[in-house]
Design goal:
alpha+beta; three-stranded antiparallel β-sheet; 9 strands; 9 helices; single chain
């Protein structure tokens, strides 16, 4: 059975930030059970990168604006014949609820930045070996706490991100579902097209093709070049014609 690999490429800075946040929050949840020093440093590095994203812009404002945009789309869908109005109303209410949660939540990342342990570890992550026990005795003693104590602390940290995480999950799901995969063919490893006000490209390739896409573009035009993956037999040849699935969302 053929294995399909999904690639996603953002077409604007807003989507680029959102996909990076999604990528990091998934890693935090995967590494939240901290059982040793290596796991702790991996968790805190991911947390530090997440806080860096917060410091570059106001994600909450962008998400609230996007929720309003999605609500406008839902209002237009409600007038389309044959549409399940109950589903549209449920989505509309879910988005309204997320707006309330976002508005009530404190400034994103503030509680994490002000946490003494996170702050102390974050300051030394870029120093080679800077998280030794003599550099961070606070981390050293925290790692000797019972597992349930550490688990409870990590859960508390992650709960501060939930208003943003839940809102973003709903928005990204709606955006991804707005595009339908269509069969496309590249010539000599290259494909380009125009698109109207899109946020995201999604590509499906077969693993056995041993190729990956390099995408450039913005919300109205994009280009895709397919590049070969090196393996033990050398470089894979890019076929003159390559079939793939593409969705513009």
């Amino acid at each position: 059975m053929s294995t399909v690999v999904l690639f996603e490429h953002p077409l604007n800075e807003k989507m680029r930030t959102w996909l990076r946040f999604e990528f990091l929050i998934q890693q935090l949840h995967e590494t939240m059970r901290i059982t040793h020093t290596g796991a702790a440093l991996n968790f805190f590095r991911i947390m530090s990168e997440l806080l860096d994203i917060f410091e570059r812009g106001d994600m909450r404002t962008d998400l609230i604006k996007e929720i309003e945009r999605q609500q406008q789309k839902l209002r237009s869908w409600a007038d389309v014949p044959g549409v399940n109005v109950a589903v549209v109303d449920a989505l509309h209410e879910k988005l309204r609820t997320q707006t309330v949660h976002l508005n009530r939540a404190p400034r994103m990342g503030r509680q994490l930045r002000e946490d003494r342990l996170i702050s102390s570890v974050r300051q030394r992550l870029n120093i080679p070996g800077g998280c030794c026990s003599f550099d961070l005795p606070g981390l050293h003693i925290w790692l000797h706490q019972p597992q349930e104590v550490r688990d409870r602390q990590v859960t508390t940290w992650l709960e501060t991100l939930e208003p943003l995480n839940q809102s973003l999950a709903i928005i990204l799901d709606l955006i991804r579902q707005s595009g339908t995969f269509r069969h496309q063919t590249s010539l000599n490893g290259f494909y380009q097209d125009n698109v109207e006000d899109a946020d995201l490209l999604r590509l499906q390739l077969h693993l056995e093709d041993a190729l990956y896409p390099q995408v450039s573009g913005h919300k109205s035009r994009y280009a895709i070049r397919f590049l070969p993956l090196y393996n033990e037999c050398g470089e894979v040849q890019v076929p003159m014609q390559l079939n793939f699935e593409l969705a513009c969302c």
